[in-house]
Each structure stands twice: as structure tokens, then as C-alpha cells.
Specification:
Shape: globular
Strand order of the largest sheet: 5-11-10
Number of domains: 1
CATH architecture: Beta Complex
CATH topology: Beta-clip-like
Number of helices: 4
Largest sheet: 3 strands, antiparallel
Distance between the termini: 12 Å
CATH class: Mainly Beta
Length: 199
């Protein structure tokens, strides 16, 4: 069972490699780069372009670093760390799947008859949503097997980008030990109407 996250989850480890992003106390909306120059935060502004460039440079960990195993519970399969520990803040992979606009997603998965357990929703700046649907094994990756845990117990964090193409980037929220099951908080919107399934 997996995912429908609606809101940007805070990812403090992500900002560690983005050291150029600093804020002046007197100008909280304008980041300052290493040269002391302000950048605007618009979707196509210099700050946004730099963030996207840095994120694009991240290489996903190879599948061999993970194990997909049965959890031994009603949750079914889960994703586990392989034989080598993963450092805190390390980029794991993107959540992969078919990109679907809100209307197409709603047609496929009407809310009154059930929703995809493998869709992650991304909120755009204009309030509309777009989804990454990992229902198809052929179009998805191992990220689809990460089970839910409440935010204070989850060991994986996600950061969403809506533009220029939708992405859900997943990072280690702390050191992940060999054999440890990975988990992230699906968010309240996922559990709406199915609270009885939340373990």
C-alpha cells in the first residue's frame, strides 16, 4: 500500500548541500548568494534555476542498495536498506511513475470508489494538482514500496517540485542502517476516508 502526499514535506537535510542559499534577516523573501547579490524566488528566477540544477545533479542510489521484502504484517511488501548504511540527508531516488493531470487522475481513481495507493499528488503554485502515478510496475521504481509511518517515526523525507516537470525527490531523514525498513509520512490527505486502514 502506498502514497498520496499533498503538501510539501519539510526536508531539512536537502538544504545542507545548498549552502549558497542564505537569507538576510531584513529581507526574508530574497535569498543571498555567495556574492551577496539578491535573487528573486519566482519559478524562473535565478534561485529557482540554481536549485533545479543542483537537484538535477543528484544521482539516485542503485537498486542494489535496497531490498524489497515482505514486512511480515498486513502492510505487505516494504523497502529495506541493503547491506550498506545510507548517510543522513543522502538522496535516494525520485518517486517514479506516469504523470497525470488532476482530471485524468480523478477519472481513473474516483474518490468515492477508491484511489490509487501508488499516487503522489503535487500542489502547484496556482492551487491545482498533478500526480505521479506509480501503479504500473513498468513505469515505477522501488520507491512505490516505501510504507507509511507518522512524521515523527518516518526515516525518509520527500521534497516535491511542480516545475518545470513534477518530481518527488526522496532523501534519508537520518542514518539508515542495514536491514532497516524505510518509511515516510503519506500525509493527511492520503488517509482521508480510510482512517481505519492507518496502522
Amino acid at each position: 500500500m502506498l502514497l498520496l502526499a499533498w503538501l510539501l514535506l519539510p526536508v531539512l537535510p536537502l538544504w545542507q548541500p545548498l549552502r549558497w542559499l542564505q537569507k538576510r534577516p531584513s529581507d526574508r523573501n530574497q535569498p543571498v548568494d555567495d556574492d551577496g547579490e539578491c535573487d528573486d524566488l519566482s519559478a524562473d528566477g535565478p534561485a529557482a534555476r540554481r536549485i533545479r540544477a543542483e537537484l538535477a545533479a543528484h544521482e539516485p542510489l542503485p537498486d542494489s542498495r535496497f531490498r524489497c521484502l515482505h514486512t511480515g504484517s498486513d502492510r505487505g511488501l516494504g523497502l529495506f536498506v541493503g547491506e550498506q548504511a545510507i548517510e543522513s540527508g543522502e538522496y535516494l531516488f525520485d518517486y517514479k511513475g506516469r504523470v497525470r493531470e488532476d482530471g485524468e487522475h480523478a477519472e481513473l481513481y474516483p474518490r468515492n470508489t477508491g484511489r490509487s495507493n501508488y499516487s503522489v499528488g503535487i500542489m502547484r503554485a496556482d492551487g491545482s494538482s498533478i500526480f505521479i502515478d506509480a501503479t504500473s510496475l513498468a513505469e515505477s521504481n522501488l520507491a512505490r514500496y516505501i510504507n507509511h509511518a507518522d512524521a515523527d517515526e518516518a526515516n525518509v523525507v520527500a521534497w516535491t517540485l511542480a516545475e518545470p516537470q513534477p518530481r518527488v525527490l526522496m532523501f534519508a531523514g537520518r542514518v539508515l542502517l542495514p536491514g532497516e525498513e524505510m518509511s515516510w509520512d503519506y500525509g493527511q490527505a492520503f488517509w482521508a476516508g480510510r482512517e481505519d486502514e492507518c496502522l
